[in-house]
Inverse folding.
């Protein structure tokens, strides 16, 4: 009876041992499936946390190697009886390992960090920036030599004039104009005008037969004003910079075109109040070279017409360090 009891106890011990190995990941079926005692997400657990989880198994099996070691089953010790005992056959109990429930890790939804988008600059702010650069290009230049074509239609009678001009200017405010072509009066070709900005006076040398005469006169004299009674100093580069630098003028880039073989950008200039150049103007167009910011075009429009009534086309523009004072004599 004592021997039978020992054999039964041994069998129970073997069953418990097999169950313990199964719970820790051992499988006697021939297929090795490692079931971690504690699930962890390797995306976020540190190596120390993973090692701690692996060590939480209380059995002697090894984990974390990727290949489970097949446990060696202990063979029951044969007990030899002192007399001729009946052979005790140990009770064999098949212990099926529990099938672990596969838990799919929850993949955290990681939303990408959205970088704040800087709003694109409006056409108005871009236009103002471009216009300021054009004006700065002019104001930063000590002296200018340019060739100009000027078109102007009278808003009173509709008559128009096209003139070719040579233009010189020098800081702080010396200007000289010479007429190179005139669509209405050929006798005006060769006429010269020089003045100081802000004085309201001009010295004139006529063209043709009267070229030996020089005369000082008011700039408002009808002999030297334009078809719309614009004075010379109201349409030069100095007056353009001063007027369009005022805060009341708004600028928008409206497109681009080609002028004399050069691509230029167009800025539409408006005033919420009254245009200080001419109250009849609805808007102006400033064309500039986007590579150099040199002004290439200046146009003025009225609400009644889609065509410019006033246009200055700059055919050539030279920014110079200085000009001789003798150039400004007529």
């Amino acid at each position: 009876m004592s021997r039978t009891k020992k054999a039964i106890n041994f069998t129970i011990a073997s069953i418990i041992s097999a169950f313990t190995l199964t719970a820790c990941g051992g499988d006697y079926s021939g297929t090795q499936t490692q079931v971690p005692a504690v699930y962890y997400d390797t995306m976020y657990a540190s190596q120390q946390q993973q090692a701690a989880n692996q060590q939480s198994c209380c059995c002697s099996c090894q984990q974390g190697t990727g290949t489970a070691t097949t446990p060696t089953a202990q063979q029951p010790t044969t007990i030899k009886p002192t007399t001729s005992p009946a052979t005790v056959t140990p009770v064999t109990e098949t212990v099926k390992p529990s099938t672990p429930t596969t838990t799919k890790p929850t993949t955290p939804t990681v939303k990408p960090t959205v970088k704040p988008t800087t709003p694109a600059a409006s056409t108005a702010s871009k236009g103002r920036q471009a216009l300021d650069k054009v004006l700065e290009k002019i104001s930063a230049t000590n002296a200018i030599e340019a060739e100009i074509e000027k078109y102007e239609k009278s808003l009173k009678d509709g008559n128009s004039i096209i003139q070719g001009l040579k233009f010189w200017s020098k800081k702080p405010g010396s200007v000289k104009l010479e007429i190179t072509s005139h669509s209405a009066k050929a006798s005006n070709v060769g006429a010269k005008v020089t003045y100081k900005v802000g004085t309201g006076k001009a010295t004139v040398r006529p063209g043709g037969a009267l070229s030996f005469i020089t005369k000082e006169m008011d700039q408002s004299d009808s002999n030297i004003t334009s078809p719309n009674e614009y004075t010379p100093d109201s349409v030069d580069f100095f007056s353009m910079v001063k007027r369009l630098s005022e805060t009341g003028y708004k600028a928008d880039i409206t497109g681009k075109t080609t002028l004399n073989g050069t691509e230029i950008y167009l800025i539409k200039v408006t005033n919420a109040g009254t245009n200080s150049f001419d109250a009849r103007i609805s808007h102006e167009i400033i064309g500039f070279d986007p590579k150099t910011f040199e002004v290439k075009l200046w146009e003025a429009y009225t609400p009644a017409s889609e065509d410019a009534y006033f246009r200055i086309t700059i055919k050539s523009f030279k920014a110079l360090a200085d000009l001789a004072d003798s150039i400004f004599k007529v």
About this structure: The first helix runs from residue 2 to 23. The chain has two domains: 1-101, 123-328. The chain has four helices and eleven strands.
